[in-house]
Amino acid sequence: MEFLTYSPETSLDDILADSHRNPQVIFKHSTRCIISSMALKRLKLDQKLNVTVWVLDLLNHREISNSLAAHFGIPHQSPQMFVLVKGQMKGSATHEKIDCDFIQNHL
User: Fold this and answer.
1) Per-residue 3-state assignment (H helix, E strand, C coil) for 44-61
2) Distance CA 27, CA 103 (A)
3) Residue 37 half-sphere exposure, CB side, CA atoms within 13 Å?
């Protein structure tokens, strides 16, 4: 897995386009939340999946989180993960459901 930072310069359209070549994951992370930190650690422990994980810092970029919620039609939660394949969201998970098995099951 490759971990990248989702920032204001990141384009959701580009991520969706890239998902046609390689699955993409958006992970909405709160650095103040132990559950979020544990979920991110679970993702980083499994390097077998060939996906790109975009990590969005919710404390610094809540407006991006709100735009993702509006785009995908899913209310904001933290932590939260979206699995993107072939330009579409194939699954979303929150809290303890965030792990590599969830990603694998939605590829």
Assistant:
1) HHCCCCCCEEEEEECCCC
2) 11
3) 4
Look up the pTM and report it.
0.93
SS3 68: helix
Amino acid at 5: T
pLDDT at 70: 94
The pLDDT score that the predictor gives to residue 4 is 97
Report the DSSP beta bridge partners of residue 27.
55, 81
Domains in the chain, please, with CATH? 2-105 (3.40.30.10)
Cis peptide, bond prior to residue 8, ω within 30 of zero: no
Q: Where are the alpha helices (DSSP H) in the chain?
A: 12-18, 34-45, 62-72, 100-105
